[in-house]
Amino acid sequence: MINFEEELRKFHPSLEVEDAEEAIYNQDLTDMADLVVKVVKESKASKNLE
Asked: Which of 26, 6, 10, 29 shows the shortest CA–CA distance to 18?
């Protein structure tokens, strides 16, 4: 049978996964909600200037 405790002790995460995780979290990603908020703010600002 598989000794899960022993297998967990031997586990080491892949460096590639850690590198990918760091690269993903360090990116400044703009999602659709951010874009909608920006468009609404710009629209209100342009109306205030008129």
From this structure: 26
